[in-house]
Design brief:
The structure is a homotetramer.
Chain A (H helix, E strand, L loop, with lengths): L2 E6 L7 H14 L3 E5 L2 H7 L2 E4 L26 H14 L4 E5 L1 H12 L4 E5 L15 H22 L2 E6 L6 H10 L3 E3 L7 H13 L5 E6 L5 H12 L3 E5 L11 H19 L5 E6 L2 E6 L2 H4 L6 H10 L2
Parallel strand pairs in A: 1-2, 1-4, 4-5, 5-10, 6-8, 6-9, 7-8
Antiparallel strand pairs in A: 2-3, 10-11
Helix pairs in contact in A: 1-9, 2-3, 5-6, 6-11
Enzyme class (chains A, B, C, D): transferase
Organism (chains A, B, C, D): Planomicrobium stackebrandtii
Pfam families (chains A, B, C, D): PFK (PF00365)
């Protein structure tokens, strides 16, 4: 290969820039050219592609968001869109593509690979929900953002003897809620992976009060229900007043943590290596403390399993 | 005086602990005893009062919330409640009281003063809305919390070319929205002090897009309307999609900034001095860069005026 | 005037970018062109000057350092250097210049003004040591950086029952040490403005230990002596082991606080107004809570006075 | 077992409190009593031991340092000291002990185990240098503290076109320098595990300048040499001026990251389980993404190996 491209797609996540930097510089290190595709698959279709030098990705490792921008692109799901994209890449002389994003982005990468254009998937999403990797880029930063928010909320909760409900991201995966709940010392965690018992939860709240706890914190993943909905439920069932904090979009932003920068760097570099070795259709990940690459289809067919031992431990420690 | 008390009341704000520490240690420095009243006026009525030594307020200057706790107390608004409170203070040998809180808390302090029990008001609220002082304890910390949130949101807004609405606290006062809007580089700021023109706002949004801005940020104080309500309005009027972030309770918490710690220290110390000089019914503040004390009734009768020059400047710079 | 320039000079300070943004956009708002001069007076001499549009200063309000870069320039102190600079500015069509920096930078601005080229000084330095203004841009951010460092050090100091010496910036002005000392709950503060009594300091340390304090923190401004030097002195005099932390360059960097962004915005905007009104040789400042402009020579001839009431209060509260 | 103890020893590290909380609550969950030993082995000898209830470890998961304090203790290295310690523990009814600390602390734990008093080691040190575990509690927080400092320094380095040397902790292990170097985008990393070539380093610096890099950052682990020493060397060899930042003690403090809180919780809980299953002389760790326990002697006899792939990658990406 002489020239490859890199794009970011789907929701942005902190550390994507570290991955972009690694793809560009690792490529240059191996003597090939690297081009950035702007605004995801949309930019691929439109030929919004520019060659990047080592200096172009300087001073971005510490930035949140993605310097290559991201966008939704319905057109790319069509045959026509994909053919346009391949045409654009041929025009630019690209022979391979690194796609940084979530599993939706992987599907696009797989489609291109199947059309003979080799793509590699790099897991970039705060949800940590891509099968085949223990961690995704952005999860650690989002988690620490949630933890800082909980720490702030606890100040008020303690001062006023209140129960707080904190709604965090996670439509299908409870990783963020689980880790944040354990690290934030939450009394109760509600995740999509586990059914909840509202009576048991209320019982737990009341016992905590009885033994003199000045505050209770409940973490709920958005995939279970909204924070305000939960507050209404608790009010109705037990006449307990709670306060709700919906963390929302702040969870996506911010300067990446050291770990997400390292992960982004490792993953981006490995993606280039795999591509240069001829390996289209592979996804990069961290598995049992090792950087690995695996068949990208595993990311669609396998299931992501949250670490339920955190759930159990969290309950035991929240007594 | 030989013994005084200190309490925190109303919503907690970062820096209250610095003020408590200052009251306690300044009192001890002047050879008097100081007692902490726990859970605000509720604790005063119930006699939840403990003597505090210098060491008891060690290592709290950096903590958010209030170590003396806070609570709402309807009973204290009654004659009976106030008489009980005075009885408790007499029992404890208190001869004066420093009340740290917002203007609601000041009313209680004034009531006690009028009953012959001298109280001093120290402005502790993140809203910065107490007449007679340029700054209240907690405003600077809350402002920086909002700014950090906006910085995070901007990462995503830029990456995805989106318009974000950020709802901040401020029922009657727009200070937080004003300062955050200017410091956060927001395109539009909606505050209770100023009527808004929805058409002008939309026009501004569209012009920004036309000249290639990758994102727009609108700050709305909760007193104007909710963020989601504003999003609906914009959608309806101009079919522009926006994302909403309701910052909520995180604005109250967190380790106080240097400024709020200094303000708390200066105000707490001055409160003790004024009390020792026989001055019940006074409020402490910062006016034109000087620590001042003034008639507490001014805090009810005068009006707080947000600095509208920030509003004008913000508009000029958001072109 | 139809076109003005803006440069940053001397040590960088957080908030300089907010000031640059304000100069550029306020200028454009008033219908004039604005050019950025890169690398301070060096760039002025070399003609490293580029026109800036509103979009060129987008997304910089939250960045530390200075996007216009800074540099030392001995040549500019010479007649020849200054004449070259004026020539370059004439070539570019500049009719006025906003100089953001410390008092050294002001001298250059005054020299140009005296040569008939009107300049305005905007106070940008973390030292807060420019006469005529209560605050300089960058001071608040540096102060909070110091406070965060002290908070971290206190964790260890408390855990190990240790005495820590923290050396902060401040060759001639003790503002940073004073504010940080009060906000950080330091036992002792050593500043250039006040002679110190080593015996009294040691006595204070020992008394603190006797009454059970788990840690002591001493803040020393670099202008008094180095932290390691002080540690040696204490060891020699009283055989007390201390740990030293020299905060160094981290004090200059970081995303500016809300206050420094607002200050930068207000000052930059005022500078443009004064320049457009024909006022060369003026400096901008904040005096008694008002944005002011004053004769720039005052910044050389008057003295900056640190607020010694903080010093006194800090001692009283550190009992 | 009916009662166990927990202590922290050696240098404090963020997340130790999460581990203490986990030991106490997991113990209570299993129906046994837990006592905190204050000030490490010193407190063990002196009988500074107090029973802890679930509420006693509330609100500490987010605190830096260690609530149980730490101290050096030469006496504990003697036969006599260890016998005293065992006597005290018998007096208190303790049947097992969890020791949270570095490998020095493990030696004490092993000594007690060999005397028939079962101890479990939990790895708490920012150095990440304990054989048998991929991560120690505190490493992630220290790493992020270093990264934040580097980000601040880069602002100034970029603004002034300077080369900075950042000295980080690590006497024998380069983990902190390695991870920080990769995550911080440093040009050069000097670690104890790898010999350095001063000429190659200078060559790299000069090439970076030639290709227009505005700044260079060199990370040096204290075990290689001091930052100032390195600056002198570079000055002498190549007449290049550098600035030095010695991060020092701030690396030990601060609120723990989410990861360190989770690690502390997992490790503390596992320690209790192993102790209850009769397993003295075991150490807890994270190996290949699994919580494990292993023979504590491995922590002395095996070698800790830093991940040198980070070193290689860092060089490749710093082109």
């Amino acid at each position: 290969m002489k020239k490859i491209g890199v794009l970011t797609s789907g929701g942005d996540s902190p550390g994507m820039n570290a991955a972009v930097r690694a793809v560009v510089r690792k490529g240059i290190y191996h003597g090939i050219e690297v081009a950035g595709v702007y605004s995801g698959y949309q930019g691929l279709i439109e030929g919004n592609i520019k060659r990047l030098e080592a200096g172009d990705v300087g001073d971005i490792i510490q930035r949140g968001g993605t310097k290559l921008y991201s966008a939704r692109c319905d057109e790319f799901r069509t045959n026509e869109g994909q053919l346009k994209a391949i045409e654009q890449m041929k025009k630019e002389g690209l022979e391979g593509l690194v796609v940084i994003g979530g599993d939706g982005s992987y599907r696009g990468a797989m489609a291109l690979t199947e059309r003979g254009f080799p793509c590699i998937g790099v897991p970039g999403t705060i949800d940590n929900d891509i099968p085949g990797t223990d961690y995704t880029i952005g999860f650690d930063t989002a988690l620490n953002t949630v933890i800082e928010a909980i720490d702030k909320i606890r100040d008020t909760a303690t001062s006023h003897e209140r129960t707080f409900i904190v709604e965090v991201m996670g439509r299908d995966a409870g990783d963020l809620a689980l880790w944040a709940g354990l690290a934030g010392g939450a009394e109760t965690i509600l995740i999509p992976e586990e059914s909840y018992d509202i009576d048991e939860m209320i019982d737990r709240l009341q016992k905590g009060r009885d033994r003199g706890k000045r505050h209770s914190i409940i973490i709920v993943a958005e995939g279970v229900m909204g924070g305000n909905e939960l507050a209404d439920l608790i009010k109705e069932k037990a006449d307990i007043e709670t306060r709700v904090s919906v963390l929302g979009h702040i969870q996506r932003g911010g300067s990446p943590t050291a770990r997400d920068r390292v992960l982004g760097s490792l993953f981006g570099a490995r993606a280039v290596e795999v591509l240069l070795n001829g390996g289209g259709g592979r996804a990069i990940g961290m598995k049992n403390h090792q950087v690995v690459d695996y068949d990208m289809t595993e990311a669609f067919t396998a299931e992501h399993n949250a670490d339920m031992s955190l759930y159990t431990l969290s309950k035991e420690l929240a007594i």
